Amino acid sequence: MSNYRSHIWHPFTKFSALENEGLPVIERAEGIYLFDQDGNKYIDGISSWWCVNLGHSNPDITHAIKEQADTLQQSILGNLAHSGAIQLAEEICQTMPDSNRHVLFASDGSSANESALKVAVQYFHNIGQSQRNKFVSLTDPYHGDTIGSVSVGYIESFHKPLKPLLFETHQLTPPSRSEKQDYSAVEKLFNEYGHEIAAVIVEPLCQGASGMRMYSPDYLKLLSETCKKYGCLLIVDEIAMGMGRTGKMWAHEHAGIDPDIITIGKGITAGYIPLSAAVFKDKIYRTFNDEGEDKTFYHGHTFAGNPLACSAALATLKYYRENNVPEQARTKGAAIQQELCALEELDCVKEVRSLGMVNAIELQSSEQTRQVKASLLKEGILLRPLGAVIYLMLPLTVNEDEIRYVIQHVKEAVQKL
Ligand code: PMP
To answer: What is the Å distance from ligand 1's center to 110 Cα?
Structure first.
């Protein structure tokens, strides 16, 4: 455990937690395991913030990165291209329902969402509808930490001091899967504000950071149809739920829709090197031409489409194709859910829910999740509860024995409450 008074500013970490719980210093990782400086071994129950979907030290990916490092480690995409980015953009588009798309690379999920929001507004300006500059998001959303993504992802307890900087966003509350499916608020909102809305931005089917809150594919389908009806765009943020996590390559596939803009990140490189992207339909891209008026999108990050990151992503997509990773996630996730749902009989459990390899248990209080987290840490299982919700986001490559170990200890920890 290191002294918490280091020079690092630890993200999303309370000072009190640093003082009371200490800080494991991770030295290496393999498969689903992290190893710290003191020789402790932990199961990475949250895939290192939901990105290490293929586990750590996957030789196919590390080999691709090493080879790339010997050839071309950085080159920009402004007025230049490189073969890794060309191939990756094509492969990404081919995974999507309509592949006639264009990929704007960035390095983290927040920046991908930021570009999606900016493009949506500039797109409507380009086509002479600049009154469309408002957004709709879901309540308790999370789309990243930049000012734009915080504006559409406003959470009072996190962002109150920043409020003067943020733009106003309409919000809709999707009924959870266990509630009555009343969707009337959608039409009501669009009836009133539809003319000024540029885009709706959503996490598809599961709102991760707000406690793995799940809503039905029908609701997403309705949002997609409503966007079409009112002439605005649908941005689907697949940064957390994409890349097979929910049992399909992209979570929006469960709803059978074809979003205008899809943002991706985290697992696109299996978490080996930062890379993200916003993927736009051709009808949007085409309007950014400079025929007559200059409508170029003046936006781009230094490391956008970095060759090392592209090589990691290409190796990741190859691994997905060869091992049918989304299918594995579907089967393993269903097996975990079957084991965990028995916990619903306990008084301390409000709900057990799952979507592919997102497995969540909602308890009655955050004090209970704190206790479960502490018990599991003693068994070498590292989790990060969200309020009263504990969840597993294990690497999708986790094996049966490892699943059995985790399930047994999660059950015991909850039963002990
Ligand atoms: N969107 C969603 C749905 C996320 O879960 C996250 C990160 N947890 C982000 C965006 C932001 O990604 P990043 O942390 O890479 O900026």
So the answer is: 6
